[in-house]
Amino acid sequence: MKLEIRNLSAGYGRKTVLEEINFEIPEGKITTLLGPNGCGKSTLLKTIGRLLRPQRGAVYLDGKAIHTLDTAKLARDLALLPQLHHAPGELTVGQLVAFGRFPHRRAFTPASKHDQEVVDQALEMTRLGVLRDRLLTTLSGGERQRAWIAMTLAQEPEILLLDEPTTFLDVCCQYEVTELVRNLNRTSGLTVVMVLHDLNLAARCSDRLAAIRDGKIRYSGTVSELMKPEILREIFEIETEIAVGTDGIPFCIPTGSCRSTGEKNHG
User: Which DSSP category does 19 fall into?
Assistant: First the structure.
């Protein structure tokens, strides 16, 4: 499905965070939004996911503004996992994942055989089959995050939006989650748009990067095109050295801040 952002301005109340964003999300690829705190990454993702209504412009899905689409239809095409999420009550992994089938079911109807098959597949894809009867409260952070991703997969979306899916996870779990996302993209052709803070993690799992600063997309392109000292200096106000791993993927080594003294004192 074709996802386009045209002349988009968005924010909260009277405050505008994003201004005149024009951007096309490549189909079947992983695009990661990068930028400093407060630059508008999560605001952009929330607007794409219809949690926020644009102040101007629109997000288009196959040529139709998403804010005009039927909610259930949109939920079958696009799934959003926000940064903060909470499950009601004491749920098992299987019960949580089954919630992902709601957009495909009529009200007050029991789950069908196909619904159960999709839930089973989502659990298998996220390596959670053996944990389906475990309570979410007994899982590790990485296991819980995989369970939430499994729930979004049960929606059978063509586009998956992830807002900082590695937050609060240790380094190993961060790589497990991003490797899972990359495997899902490679095996199913799922289009993924996500927000990450870790530059090297983003470089390893993304096809394309979009660098945001002060509410505007300043750069977008491949990992090799954006992982350059001058771009990272402009976007993040850091000095870096760029190296290339044996797998050909560039990574950055931060060497210091280049933020002005006055800005540092204001935190």
Answer: E
CA angle at residue 182 from 197 to 234, to 5 degrees? 30
- 257 DSSP 8-state letter: E
Question: For residue 109, how many other CB atoms are within 10 A of its CB?
Answer: 8
Single pTM value for the model: 0.92
Closest by CA position to 25, among listed 153, 196, 193, 226: 193
Query: Can you list the domains of the chain with their CATH numbers?
Result: 3-226 (3.40.50.300), 233-267 (no CATH)
Which of 95, 101, 103, 79 lies closest to 184 in space, CA to CA?
Answer: 79
The CA dihedral of 9, 11, 16, 22, to the nearest 10 degrees, is -20
- CA torsion 118-119-120-126 (nearest 10°) is 110
Query: What CA–CA distance (Å, rounded) separates 157 from 155?
Result: 5
| Cα–Cα distance measured from residue 198 to residue 5, given in angstroms and rounded to the nearest whole number | 25
- Are 136 and 144 a contacting pair, CB within 8 Å? yes
Report d(CA 38, CA 29) in Å as an integer.
Answer: 25
**What is the tens place of the pLDDT at every residue in 145-177?**
999 999 999 999 999 999 999 988 999 999 999
Q: CA geometry: angle at 199 spanning 198 and 200, to 5°?
A: 95
Contact 177, 150 (CB under 8 A): no
CA terminus-to-terminus distance, the chain = 41
Arithmetic mean of pLDDT over the chain: 92
**Pair of tokens at residue 38:** 């407060």
pLDDT in tens, 54-99: 999 999 999 999 999 999 889 999 999 998 777 766 899 999 999 9
